[in-house]
Design goal:
Oligomer: heterodimer
Largest sheet of chain B: 8 strands, mixed
Structural class of chain B: alpha/beta
CATH superfamily of chain B: Alpha/Beta hydrolase fold, catalytic domain
Number of domains of chain B: 1
Number of helices of chain B: 11
Number of domains of chain A: 2
Strand order of the largest sheet of chain A: 1-7-6-5-4-2-3
Order of helices and strands of chain B: EEEHEHEHEHHHHHEHEHH
CATH class of chain B: Alpha Beta
CATH topology of chain B: Rossmann fold
Distance between the termini of chain A: 62 Å
Mean pLDDT of chain A: 95
Strand content of chain B: 15-25%
Mean pLDDT of chain B: 97
CATH architecture of chain B: 3-Layer(aba) Sandwich
Order of helices and strands of chain A: HHHEHEHEHEHEHEEHHHHHHEHEHEEHEH
Radius of gyration of chain A: 22 Å
CATH topology of the largest domain in chain A: Aspartate Aminotransferase, domain 2
Number of strands of chain A: 12
Number of strands of chain B: 8
Helix content of chain B: 25-40%
Structural class of chain A: alpha/beta
Number of helices of chain A: 18
Strand order of the largest sheet of chain B: 1-2-4-3-5-6-7-8
CATH class of the largest domain in chain A: Alpha Beta
Shape of chain B: globular
Largest interface: A-B, 56 and 42 residues
Chain lengths: ~425, ~260
């Protein structure tokens, strides 16, 4: 064993990073600082806080002690310099983009995205002058070919929707860095337990904390983490971070804070002005989940592997899309990047189209039919009869979704019960 | 501000203010492998409270060009050259770790220029372990891990950062990851081989303040005692909960100590 000091392990950080027993009361659990604002010691103290001469909290839209514990803990688990918690995962994505670029900018994004992210990039941001080119993530050179002079960001999901495309982070980040651009990844499906995107070259990442981080399905939230490794000054493409900003003390964020430039502007402008902050009770609830992330994720994966094997053996099933299956196009990449498992959300195609899918869904008793993933309880949705029901079969195929595609999010129940439930559904679907 | 020294760009953070000959000047000197941004809160305070601030990036660090300098004496002379270039004749200096040795050496060599010195997180001799030096020489990231872990109090990974949402370990590692190969080793070697501490301390003519972290693993407070004793007008402020990275771990207490000393 090499000599030298050791960092605390992941499991320890999941329980302790960012918080010591409350100095005021000795409380061991993270206190919920349910307050909007913080009393200044005197006028000079107030001025120093506003001018960033002293550390501390001013107003809970900008920072809050409970939220700060979550932020620091996530930065520790991901190996970043810091983090900002947001009102939702979508707010985290928006905050990243709004911090890095202005109207006239361009993003190259994976086409294998969560529908909400696709809406934001493909439609909503367009209204504000930010264009996106979507590319298939299966060939990293697609990202390179789509880069334009006004491109400011490459973006993808660690595991894409709906086919679980594994983003080749080492290859895509290399392409990004060669072009002086950062790579942002949505790491929601993998969590830092299964994949550490910064170790493979990503520069920024975010989570919908609503999903596995919380795990309990009681709170909506997001968090964005910065690796602090992208050199904005050297890139020369980000005056937002490298030139004086009249909107905040004429600050040149990179000169002021170096590795913390992105988070500084995101907090001091983005949270201040757009206001999509996280509530302290939400941070507390997400933290309760993170404290057991290292225990839950192995069980999610273990159950998923059993269910994937079960479905793969069934004649009612057309195909199962999970990267650990030998036939999945990203099988080799998954072995390299995701040795601990490819998460617990995946799709399969049931024979018999929309009607079979509907019968399947309506026969399940343990799986909950709803629009969410990453809960401790198993979840199911049939896009063709719910979220995408207005689309024709042809349009569904274009979106990478079949008429019989079912998405499962495997929870922590007894795997035998899950397979028993799926068995009921498959039999009902086959009866016609 | 930027200046040319020996044909190389030299950078110092000035808290967004132009230098004003009518104001007193505080020079901040960073430690091994780091840069001006490590002084963020403290340097900003003085820049907005009646002082010129020059938080320098030593050659090969941050925004300053050139190879890292090989000795503490060379670094002290480089700081003097920068001040001369800017026409500044008298300064207070605040140095952290390696920067504290530079500050000490500056005050000894150029007593007419140093009006006060604050030495933060300092010990003398500043011996660096063979394992640390060897790892840095190989540009092995284990050296960055040692600087990060030994550079903070043991409780840092299990406690909250006063700067909301920031992770101190990650911040230090990110900064070190941007260093050119060899820079950290050059810095550590300069600290390790600096042998003039007691002689220089005896020559210090200005008041000196030592700001020491009681939980400093890199430069434990007892390692500064002999140096304190050699300086005629020296006092010590011990910051109980802090490790070596006092500016980040105890930013307000460090700033308050500096305000008390420099204003």
């Amino acid at each position: 064993m090499a000599a030298g000091p050791k960092y605390p392990g992941f499991d320890t950080l999941a329980l302790h990073a960012g918080q010591s027993p409350d100095p005021a009361t000795g409380a061991r659990a993270v206190p919920v600082y349910q307050t909007t604002s913080y009393v200044f010691r005197d006028a000079a103290h107030a001025a120093s806080l506003f001018n960033m001469e002293r550390a501390g909290h001013v107003y809970s839209r900008i920072s809050n002690p409970t939220v700060a514990v979550l932020e620091e803990r996530m930065a520790a688990l991901e190996g970043g310099v810091g983090a900002i918690a947001t009102a939702s995962g979508q707010a985290a994505l928006h905050l990243a983009i709004a911090t890095l670029m202005d109207a006239g900018s361009h993003i190259v994004a994976s086409s294998a995205l969560y529908g909400g992210s696709h809406n934001l990039l493909g439609y909503t941001l367009k209204r504000f002058g930010i264009e996106t080119t979507f590319v298939s993530p299966r060939q990293p050179e697609n990202f390179k070919n789509a880069i334009k002079p006004n491109t400011r960001l490459l973006f993808g999901e660690t595991l894409g929707n709906p086919g679980l495309d594994v983003l080749d982070i080492p290859a895509v980040s290399e392409i990004a860095h060669a072009a002086g651009l950062p790579l942002l990844v949505d790491a929601t499906f993998t969590t830092p337990y299964l994949l550490k995107p910064f170790e493979h070259g990503a520069d920024l990442l975010y989570h919908s904390a609503t999903k596995f981080l919380g795990g309990h399905g009681v709170a909506i939230g997001g968090v964005i983490v910065d690796s602090g490794r992208f050199d904005w000054e050297k890139s020369g493409k980000f005056p937002q971070l490298t030139a004086p900003y009249a909107g905040f003390h004429n600050m040149d964020f990179e000169e002021e804070s170096g590795t913390r430039a992105f988070l500084l502007r995101a907090r001091r402008e983005g949270l201040r002005d757009f206001g999509a902050c996280m509530a302290p009770m939400t941070a507390f609830q997400i933290l309760q989940g993170i404290e057991t992330l290292h225990l839950r994720m192995p069980r999610h994966v273990e159950n998923t592997r059993k269910v994937v094997a079960f479905l793969s053996s069934r004649p009612e099933v057309e195909k199962v899309l999970y990267p650990e299956i030998a036939g999945h196009p990203d099988n080799a990449l998954a072995k390299k990047l995701l040795p601990r498992g490819c998460g617990a959300v995946f799709s399969f195609d049931i024979k018999g189209g929309r009607e079979a899918g509907r019968r399947f869904i309506e026969s399940l008793r343990v799986f909950s039919h709803l629009a969410n993933v990453g809960d401790a309880k198993s979840l199911v949705i049939h896009p063709a009869s719910t979220t995408h029901y207005r689309m024709s079969d042809e349009d569904l195929v274009k979106a990478g979704i079949g008429a019989g595609t079912i998405r499962l999010s495997i929870g922590l129940e007894d795997a035998e019960d899950l397979m028993g439930d799926l068995n009921l559904g498959l039999r009902a679907a086959a009866k016609g | 501000m930027e200046a040319q020294l020996g044909g190389r760009k030299a950078f110092a953070y000035t808290a967004a203010h132009a230098l004003d000959a009518a104001k007193p000047t505080v020079v901040f000197v960073h430690g091994a492998g780091l840069d001006h941004s490590w002084w963020g809160l403290q340097s900003r305070y003085f820049g907005y409270h009646g002082f010129n601030v020059l938080a320098v990036d030593l050659p090969g660090h941050g925004r300053s060009e050139g190879a890292a300098l090989a000795s503490i004496g060379d670094m002290a002379s480089w700081v003097k050259s920068l001040l001369e270039k800017e026409g500044i004749q008298s300064v207070s200096l605040v140095g952290h770790s390696m920067g504290a040795l530079i500050t000490l050496e500056f005050a000894a060599r150029f007593p007419a220029m140093a009006s006060r010195i604050a030495l933060i997180g300092v010990a003398y001799p500043m011996k660096v372990s063979d394992a640390f030096l060897d790892a840095a020489k190989r540009n092995d990231t284990a050296a960055y891990d040692m600087e990060t872990i030994w550079g903070h109090a043991p409780q840092v990974p299990f406690s909250g950062n006063p700067n909301p949402g920031m992770w101190m370990y990650g911040d230090t590692l990110a900064r070190l990851s941007r260093l050119a190969p060899g820079v950290l080793h050059t810095d550590l070697s300069a600290c390790n081989s600096y042998a003039a501490g007691f002689e220089s301390a005896a020559q210090v003519a200005c008041p000196a303040l030592f700001i020491l972290g009681a939980r400093d693993m890199m430069t434990p407070p007892r390692g500064a005692e002999a140096l304190v004793a050699k300086i005629k007008d020296a006092r010590v402020e011990r910051i109980r909960p802090s490790g070596h990275s006092l500016m980040a771990e105890a930013p307000d207490a460090t700033l308050d100590a500096l305000i008390g000393f420099l204003t």
